[in-house]
Design a protein that fits this description.
Blueprint lengths: L2 H10 L4 E6 L6 H17 L9 E2 L10 H10 L1 E7 L2 H5 L1 H18 L9 E3 L18 H5 L11 E2 L2 E2 L3 H23 L38 H7 L20 E6 L6 H15 L7 E5 L21 H14 L3 H4 L5 H8 L7 E2 L5 E4 L10 H9 L2 H7 L1 H14 L2 E5 L6 H9 L3 E6 L8 H14 L7 E9 L4 H23 L7 H7 L1 E2 L2 H5 L16 H13 L8 H9 L1
Parallel strand pairs: 1-2, 1-3, 3-4, 7-11, 7-12, 8-10, 8-11, 12-13, 13-14
Antiparallel strand pairs: 5-6, 9-10
Helix pairs in contact: 2-7, 3-5, 9-21, 12-15, 14-15, 16-17, 17-18, 21-22
Length: 575
């Protein structure tokens, strides 16, 4: 069948769309731009192959229209479906139903014996697992069986559009080739669209057991199976259950600062918030401790120019602890006592692994000895410490360490490693009372929501009765683009509000005032000379970083949760 005949056959048989692009609206700005550029490119090339010059995306439906029947009709009148897959795709009920619907159409029109036809898949995830808080996902079985696409995750994105590169053109050409192949097959078998009785399936194609990521390598003490694994075994979608107790009823002791991506000023925030606490919130005899737990990229001590150079730090402390646990008979059993913190401190004195910062009442536990950072010896020490094995064998040891921090210091601020790792899991899910989730405007920061969800779920299932309160902090947002700033901030506020409603059992959660109050703006000069701003005399005008850090500190030290009104928070923090 030539191109002209194919075009006429498709028109007669009600195939209006070249393809139906299925994508999760929660996929972020990059997914949105990809869909737009992909749609444009397919429309440009499809008519040359005798295919319809229309591509359906969800924004094709006018506001106020009856959504579901419109989606069903568009899917039925499409030759093929292009699925923009990723973590958000499998969690979306709409995407799962679209996938299931197109599989039904493919089977009725062309038969299940030809699985190569639908859908077309763009898969940005690696299939190999890694150890850490959240495992890298495997392809769900419905995707694995039909995997025939390309990896679009590394396409270059500049100036709000995808460049016309050979790589992108080749991908588009391959997609259109497959759509043309499907169209010819439909014409040969005389399979008209016939959409009179077609409806979207009620159940997602991904509702069964999926190869979802494991939540945490350190299992809660009374649980033998992760909640996601348990849900998958029952054929259910995993979901957060309310914690049963809304956080915010006590002052924090241990606060972790975490970011999924680097470049958001996390260490700078730790140094400045620590200074504010030491300056304004401590009474006589109290101290605040900063811990540099970013072992792979340490440097918190650089914010304290007059600090004593550490001759040992966190990595040396835990190597010493591992040696005692393995070699000292009866030591681990002694940690079962109520005074476990004192038992631990008598054996390994915590104060010996910290140094003065030059700021009154503020001490630092560096990642390691100052002279060894960056050396082969330091790297060997970091690689040699098996965190998962250590604390799965000796879970009371980490509890004793946390209680020791609470006993020795009024506040402990932890600068956690970015991304997914064993140490990031310890810092986000096990140690803190408060978890500061720092993120930048890039859509790559969306993954922080999954890590926070994993930490909350781990805490809920553990024997630790301390509530874990999360404080999301938007950082390094550029005020030069107020429109983009507002759109990104609104998107993150909505996502965190939804997560908090599920995690804490809230009826409503409005974070708009909170995000406006705690926003840390991008200041170019601090990008090159990261420093302790609160010591530099920077004015406290609205939008200044100094004002931002002080607002963040007030929020962290208040018993009120992020969704509380700002005035109540400030009053509570001052009491």
């Amino acid at each position: 069948m030539n191109t002209r005949d194919l075009k006429h056959w498709l028109e007669r048989n009600q195939y209006r769309y070249c393809c139906f692009i299925s994508w999760p609206t929660a996929g972020g700005r990059k997914a949105e731009l990809l869909v737009k550029r992909l749609k444009e490119a397919i429309i440009e090339e499809a008519p040359q192959r005798g295919l319809p010059a229309e591509v359906f995306t969800s924004d094709s439906i006018p506001h106020g229209a009856d959504w579901e029947p419109k989606m069903a009709q568009a899917l039925c009148r499409s030759i093929a479906m292009v699925a923009i897959c990723g973590p958000e795709y499998y969690d979306s009920q709409w995407c799962g139903r679209e996938w299931a619907g197109m599989l039904d159409l493919a089977e009725s029109r062309l038969g299940a014996e030809d699985p190569r036809i639908l859908p077309l898949l763009m898969q940005p995830l690696r299939s190999a697992q890694t150890s850490g808080l959240v495992q890298v996902e495997q392809l769900p079985p419905p995707v694995e069986r039909l995997h025939c696409g390309k990896d679009l995750s590394r396409l270059r994105l500049r100036s709000d559009r995808y460049h016309k590169t050979n790589e992108f053109d080749d991908i588009v050409s391959g997609i259109v080739d497959r759509i043309q192949e499907i169209a010819r097959l439909l014409a040969e078998r005389e399979r008209a669209a016939d959409c009179a009785g077609f409806h979207l399936p009620k159940e997602s194609a991904f509702a069964g057991p999926l190869q979802q990521p494991e939540i945490f390598p350190f299992r809660p003490e009374h649980s033998t199976q992760s909640p996601r694994s348990a849900a998958a075994a029952k054929g259910q979608q995993p979901a957060l259950a309310p914690t049963g107790r809304i956080p915010g009823d006590s002052k924090p002791k241990v606060v972790t600062f975490y970011s999924f991506k680097g470049g958001v000023g996390r260490s700078m925030a730790v140094a400045n918030v620590g200074r504010i606490i030491a300056r304004d919130s401590l009474q006589q005899g109290q101290e605040c401790l900063l811990i540099d737990w970013d072992l792979e990229a340490p440097g918190l001590e650089r914010y304290f120019r007059v600090a004593q150079k550490p001759d040992r730090g966190l990595i040396e402390y835990f190597h010493a602890l591992a040696g005692v646990l393995r070699n000292r008979s009866g030591f681990y059993e002694a940690l079962a006592a109520e005074n476990r913190a004192q038992v631990l401190d008598r054996e390994i004195a915590l104060i010996d692994y910290t140094v003065e910062t030059g700021v009154p009442h503020l001490r630092l536990m560096a990642a390691g000895a100052g002279d060894s950072i960056g050396s082969g010896e330091y790297q060997r020490q970091v690689m040699a410490l098996a965190w998962v094995d250590l604390f799965q064998r000796y879970p009371l040891a980490l509890r004793a360490f946390r209680e020791l921090l609470e006993t020795k210091f009024q506040y402990t601020l932890i600068d956690s490693r970015t991304g997914i790792s064993d140490t990031a899991g310890i810092c986000t899910a096990i140690l803190p009372d408060r978890l500061v989730a720092m993120f930048g405007p890039s859509p790559q920061n969306d993954a922080i929501l999954r890590v926070i969800e994993a930490a909350l779920e781990h805490r809920r299932l553990s024997d630790d009765d301390r509530p874990l309160q999360v404080f999301p902090i938007a950082s390094r947002f550029d005020a030069a683009d107020l429109g983009g700033l507002w759109r990104s901030l609104k998107s993150f506020a909505g996502a965190f509000s939804t997560l908090f409603q599920r995690a804490y059992g809230l009826k409503t959660c409005d974070l708009r005032e909170y995000f406006e109050e705690t926003l840390l703006l991008y200041v170019p000069r601090y990008l090159y000379t990261e420093t302790a701003i609160v010591d530099q005399g920077e004015p406290r005008f609205a939008g200044s970083l100094r004002r931002g850090y002080e607002s963040v500190t007030a929020r962290l030290l208040s018993p009120a949760p992020p969704w509380a009104e700002a005035e109540k928070t400030m009053r509570a923090a001052s009491r």
